[in-house]
Specification:
Radius of gyration: 22 Å
CATH class of the largest domain: Alpha Beta
Number of domains: 2
Distance between the termini: 66 Å
Bound molecules: 6-O-phosphono-beta-D-fructofuranose
CATH architecture of the largest domain: 3-Layer(aba) Sandwich
Structural class: alpha/beta
CATH topology of the largest domain: Rossmann fold
Largest sheet: 7 strands, mixed
Number of helices: 11
Length: 375
């Protein structure tokens, strides 16, 4: 029997389809395989500072496999090292509440903490481990699929499913009206969703943060399609994409934490295309539809595999590690080796080269190449 008797689990940062499947796998394997109890920490790290917790039984996680979101709640404002404390006058100020988090961790009698989160949450987890001695195991999460150290994160396949679904619908209306239709998908620093959706949904142009684009190339693509008898085009834009020499477009900023929310690039592109003349353009922002809903089976399975392995690492005392998918095996990698680094789309990778060979334009091509892209 292991010395570990009770494990805490929390979900941090933006939600992703499959979070509940991880929670379920952690609870089920802790109880069934290891005889270990599980405490759910609510609303991310905030729950540890404010002592918002609940016991998780097998009955509590029943039916979670198919549920979107996270039953534990989450927050991307919950960094205990920069905790947004609300003063009696209602003003929020950032304070270091990490000592409170540690005190509460001990008070709860936890022997380990499983942190399911993206780069921000895993960076906090790593500081917990290194600076406070809180034993942590990380589970990587993001629909953007840009976390370093793992080939895939759960949530990505579901987001891709939603993006492809949207593209299929935009296609028929683009064709009917002879329009240029833009679909803005998520992807702050990496264009994985846009690239995969463009391939799955037959996009004509794919714009990603890794490849700055030129409007001349886009216009040339639309003209080439018109010449070949298809006077409509579908453009997939990652929210973090930007034109050559331009900057990313933000929709807002959190007044306290300074967190900047991307959004609006597709509207700007639509205006610019229309101002250049010849095309009627519409932009659709898919937004948080990509983050919600029931996870597709691929995500349920990956989330389950991550959860089972995270529980095993915690129960066997292998702290400071994150579970990761490599060559279809779930492995443990030190959290410190993965944080602060991104897995971005290599503009010369096989997938991009294949997309280009199909005629998909990324906006950095010379105009002759674009002209040839429709045969
Ligand atoms: O990092 C995941 C992500 O979905 C990004 O693609 C997006 O920019 C961000 O979260 C949106 O977060 P919020 O929930 O704050 O709107």
């Amino acid at each position: 029997m292991s010395a570990v008797r009770r494990i805490g689990v929390l979900t941090g940062g933006g939600d992703a389809p499959g979070l509940n499947a991880v929670i379920r796998a952690v609870v089920r394997s802790c109880k069934v395989a290891h005889g270990v109890s599980v405490t759910g920490i609510l609303d991310g790290f905030i729950g540890l500072v404010e002592m918002k917790v609940r016991e998780l039984s097998l009955a509590d996680v029943s039916g979670l496999l198919v549920r979107g979101g996270t039953v534990l709640g989450t927050s991307n404002r919950g960094n205990p090292f920069r905790y947004a404390f609300r003063r009696p006058d209602g003003v929020e100020e950032l304070v270091d509440a990490s000592a409170t988090a540690k005190k509460n961790f001990d008070k709860l009698g936890l022997d380990g903490l499983i942190v399911i989160g993206g780069d921000g949450s895993l960076s906090i987890a790593e500081r917990f481990w290194r600076e406070l001695g809180i034993p942590v195991v990380g589970v990587p999460k993001t629909i953007d699929n840009d976390l370093f150290g793992t080939e895939y994160t759960f949530g990505f396949a579901t987001a891709l499913d939603s993006a492809s679904w949207a593209l299929d619908r935009l296609h028929s209306t683009a064709e009917s009206h002879h329009r240029v239709m833009l679909l803005e998908v998520m992807g702050r620093e990496a264009g994985w969703i846009a690239l995969h959706a463009g391939l799955a949904g037959g996009g004509d142009v794919v714009l990603i943060p890794e490849i700055p684009f030129r409007f001349e190339a886009l216009m040339a693509k639309f003209r080439a399609r018109e010449r070949s008898g298809r006077p409509f085009s579908v453009v997939v834009v990652a929210e973090g994409a930007a034109p050559e020499g331009g900057t990313q477009v933000f929709a807002g900023e959190d007044a306290v934490t300074g967190w900047k929310r991307l959004g609006g690039i597709s509207t700007q592109i639509a205006r610019e295309i229309e101002s250049r003349g010849g095309y009627e353009v519409r932009a659709t922002v898919l937004g948080h539809i990509q983050r919600g809903g029931t996870p597709v089976p691929t995500d349920r399975i990956l989330a389950t595999r991550f959860g089972v392995e995270a529980a095993r690492l915690a129960v066997t005392g292998q702290f400071g590690n994150m579970v990761a998918l490599r060559s279809d095996e779930i492995v443990a990698v030190p959290i410190e080796d993965t944080i602060g680094r991104l897995k971005r789309v290599d503009p010369n990778c096989q997938l991009v080269r294949m997309a280009r060979s199909l005629g998909i334009v990324f906006g950095d091509e010379d105009l002759e190449a674009v002209d040839r892209s429709e045969g």
